[in-house]
Amino acid sequence: xxxxxxxxxxxxxxxxxxxxxxxxxxxxxxxxxxxxxxxxxxxxxxxxxxxxxxxxxxxxxxxxxxxxxxxxxxxxxxxxxxxxxxxxxxxxxxxxxxxxxxxxxxxxxxxxxxxxxxxxxxxxxxxxxxxxxxxxxxxxxxxxxxxxxxxxxxxxxxxxxxxxxxxxxxxxxxxxxxxxxxxxxxxxxxxxxxxxxxxxxxxxxxxxxxxxxxxxxxx
Length: 219
Prior knowledge:
Keywords: Membrane, Transmembrane, Transmembrane helix. The chain is α+β, with helices and mostly antiparallel strands. The protein has 6 helices and 5 strands. It has helices at about 5-10, 15-35, 65-75, 130-145, 150, 180-219; strands at about 40-50, 100-105, 120-130, 160-165, 175. Strands 1, 2, 3, 4 and 5 form a 5-stranded antiparallel β-sheet that branches.
């Protein structure tokens, strides 16, 4: 099929081109409308004995029993929520393309194949489209940890544990795409729209010729 033939098909099936390019344009408009970014936070809650300093590098923070205890508390904050696994344990939650969500779990130093929980610390990752929404979800998550039944009635030989929030981790960041990334995304959508429109136009033209072929032979 020559370039001239393809151009004739595109002109003949202009309505297909218009429909597909219109859908691509709507997708591009949606992308631009939501290019104002998201708000994100990664809040850390350490579990320490009341007599320990927040700067302690050993002790309860690295105790296996306390790590398991912190994991039980984390599971109660957002029950039934499957964790998003990344190649790196410190990858941001919004890296999965999410614009709104809450992920709570133990701090993971592993990867998507082998998690590694080396400290008794809960990580609260929140991403949302508004600052107020992220702040509200952050307060709710911290309140659930503080009032968790595990924390209030500590089982077995684990007693006197206190959840302590890392004050620096309370910060909420505004994540916005760079202008270069936005232009690249728009160009990619435009290119994909043109390719899809051309392929669909050719397909529709072939189907139209096949359906009309029997009528021509019988006439």
